Amino acid sequence: MGKKRSGEGSNRTRMAAKFLGVSVLSGAVLAGLALPAVGAFGLVAKGSVEGFDEIPASMKTPPLSQRTTILDAEGGEIAKVYSRDRTVVPLNEISPYMRKAIVAIEDARFYEHGAIDLKGVLRAVNKNAQSGGVSEGASTLTQQYIKNIFVEEAGDDPDKVAVATQQTLGRKVKELKYAIQVEKELGKDRILNNYLNITFFGQQSYGVEAASQRYFSKRAKDLTLAESAMLAGIVQSPSRYDPVNAPNEAVKRRNTVLQRMAELKAITPEEAAAAKAEPLKLKVTRPKSGCITAVSGAGFFCDYVREVFLKDPVFGKTKEARAKRWNEGGMTIRTTLDPQTQKSVQKSITDHVYQSDSVATAISIVQPGTGKVLGMGQSRPYGFGDHQTQINLSADKNRGGSNYGFQTGSTFKPILAAAALEEGISPNKSYSSPYQMPYPDAVDTCTGTWKNSGGEMVSNENRSEAGPYGMREATAKSVNTYFIQMIGDIGTCPVTKMAEKLGLKPASGADMDQVPSIALGTQGMSPLTMASAYAAFANGGTYCTPVLITSATGPNGKSLPVPKTKCSRAMSEQTADTVNTLLKGVVEDGTGKEAGLSGRDSAGKTGTTDGRKAAWFVGYTPNMAGAVWVGGPGKDVEMENITIGGQYHDKVYGGDTPGPIWRDAMAGALEGKEAPSFDTVAVGGGERGDAGKGDTDKDGTAGNGRGRNKPGNGGNKPGGNKPGGGAGGRHNQPGQGQDGGR
To answer: How far apart are CA 88 and CA 556, in angstroms?
Structure first.
């Protein structure tokens, strides 16, 4: 026996202690310490970590985040969305090879030790002492599972994730105590099952089922030996062993797993050799998450569902609670989206407006009486590339829409007409309606009186448009001066109150301006808001708030509460029937003739803003209401001498571009559905008689009866306080009328 050198034993002890300390501080071996040793190492010293006994005995395990599936009204899938791509599966739906592989490479003595593996700790301490650093850890699968729970609970908050993964003494002590708890409560098989469902396998896949689908496009229960070994090898370092981006490293790691399985007699040497000889055989399914993958152009409908979930208190009292539930996912959300309507919306969009056009279009269709949103689409698809956007052009700002919405032009005039009828104005009321006139000297508002101190003028589109007119012809021809005289009589307050009853509010969330030019559509609105308001005319004067979600179930299949539509009377049935009569005339003999539907009653109104920066058609049948907007999606575009969808326009009007888009979308959506008729009333044509065919004069010759909306800076900026309501308003010059015309 050789001589023992002086100090050799103590040096080895100090070296072991040194590397044990290194391992402890790195979180590599503390979890393997026996409980009595906790106090011996001073782990409860003041200022280091909380006392072991002070850690709660029961750990609250957060639900695993999973995919949420969004369905249409018929149960078809619109899209899958998730914070983390995961599908939880029971142990018997995971390949036995996978179970053996993960145990072999991560914790070979998993079924032999308790929450801690003392042999593993001693082995790690010895190896780390020999290497002079931390080359091997000793965390058991149970401890790794606990760590993953901490990470899952942190969600996507980078600060919380950092805390959950930091290599500190305190975290490892807590991890140890909870590992003891779950070993006692769950047992080995459930721990293994939970671990395989929670752990990260790279490429955005969490849990073995998602990983199996990602890399091999198959269920986890069908994984082969070689495939299982590859997935098990990824866990240690998902980026280093990523088989997509680092296939050679993945093969080496897979073979290491296979070798370890053979050494442990989990497989035979022959099986290991055969599996090692196999190529990776990847069959990658790329991640498909989120509304960008939605079918039939329903990306923005999908995004609106998310916005509703995150902001409606029915899904949680606080925004944090709602976000947490959404990120946890695992839900099935059934929506109001009608597949037939959505396909028709998308086809009409692609037929009339190209994605690459300088302008865009947006359509929303709702169901009168229920508020159900049946279709929603736009020519700029959901995405991040060229001619794509994440702004929902159909929605208000607080639901992912543009900051200010889009000025509505003459599509707002029916709101004024409804308010006037409710105030007792006769539908046969005639006004002088000159080609050009000053705004009234004084107009009553909700807060006082608006005065035309600057002598602001308003004009019609064409000099031939000079009254007197009655309400029917003035509506059909969209005569500006008629409606300005009307608002002068009743004031702005009844109009803004009617708008409020119809759910109309500027898309920015601001209050409506108390100025007479609101009659000409100076306020920026969204298509969904306008469609929902017009649906009240079809519904006998009762307005219903829009809804998109009909049911939702959680991961456990339990039903969740969902928002319900709220219906309230906005006007009398007589008023609604009168507006139906007026707007039916618009599509039969007025500016909206190009939007008229064949074989069924329809009604609607055109609108074109000053400078032709926005054009609208909003219309309805007794069973559907829809709004179409066309304009610059991010900045103002003056739609003159412009090509849209391959068709040249010298000037764009609400009737000639949005009108046909609305007609084709609605025709397809209504195909095969009943065709009920409107209830109408007798309305006189006024002193000048009925409107001619389309924009024609009384003798049938083509006329220019197309008003344009008040001046303004398009749909992307709010209106101002002048009668024209927007920047650059040349509303006092001949030919620069404010009506939304054809």
So the answer is: 11
